[in-house]
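Hi team,

As requested, here is the filled-out complex form for the NAP run. I kept the field names the same as last time so the parser does not choke. Let me know if anything looks off before we queue the next batch.

— J.
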Amino acid sequence: MPSYVITGGRGIAYEFAKQLSSKPENHVFTVVRNPDAVPALGQLAAERKNLHVLKADLTDLPALKQAAKDVAAVTGGTLDVLLNVAAWLSSDVNSYKTLSEFEGNEEVLAKDLRESFEVNVVGVIYVTNSFLPLLRAGQTKKVITLSTGMADPDFNYRANQAQAGPYTISKAATNMVNSKYAAEFADEGFKFLAISPGLVDTAVPGTTMNDEQMAGVMKMVAGFKKAFPDFSGQYISPTESVNLMLDIIDTLKPEENGTFISHHRNKNWL
Ligand SMILES: NC(=O)c1ccc[n+]([C@@H]2O[C@H](COP(=O)([O-])OP(=O)(O)OC[C@H]3O[C@@H](n4cnc5c(N)ncnc54)[C@H](OP(=O)(O)O)[C@@H]3O)[C@@H](O)[C@H]2O)c1
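And here is what came back:
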């Protein structure tokens, strides 16, 4: 049975869990920091015997090692695909500030940078190292890490994306984590991929943005249109994004090991 571990329990992670567990032949494990906070996932797991919810924070190495043991107990010590989806994403007003706008308030910026690195860089390494022994014993040896086009410096500049420093700086480092692992394990037949999912609507229903956040989103989208004049300005659904990413993951080629691509399998991030 093909086996998948997904970090995160809502947004894109939930959609991966839903689509992958719709095939009864798959074993799907989600790793979430608080199962009570993702009732939709719990409901789905109650309906599908091949979907399991495990509890671990990405910053908690012992909990991640235990999650790997729990997966091994079901799969017989193997794992085929690891999907690093969970991430630290600040939606508060700080994420719409430019680096210079923290002038005089640098400790807030430093805290955001530390938190984002803790989850998006250290956490991804903790998860990957915890599941490596299982992946080594697996059939396909794929490790997919969700990144963002905003971590592409050339695109970032062309699209005037001066805001969201801590998140995008940490994701640029995540891309290097992907490249480091790819270089280390290519000879063992592993395939490591950093993939951007597009601009995806994962807002929690019922949440609203204040004026400052809304202005930040408008500015971000205007920059995207400058870099990609054909971009509609619309978010895509998690279903569409995950459909496109699963097509790529299912057909991943050895020469794509270590690359950083979009849901379109190229550098078109939108
Ligand atoms: N949505 C987009 O447009 C977009 C664009 C580019 C890239 N991405 C990337 O795609 C991925 C998924 O994005 P999304 O929009 O689905 O995000 P999301 O809806 O905000 O979900 C983030 C998930 O990460 C989990 N998480 C955060 N910190 C964690 C920690 N310390 N330990 C364990 N889990 C933790 C959250 O858990 P809780 O439920 O407990 O909070 C949540 O399940 C991310 O890597 C993101 O960077 C998204």
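Two things worth flagging: The beta strands are 3-7, 27-32, 51-55, 81-84, 142-146, 191-196, 260-262. The longest helix spans residues 106-136.

Thanks,
J.
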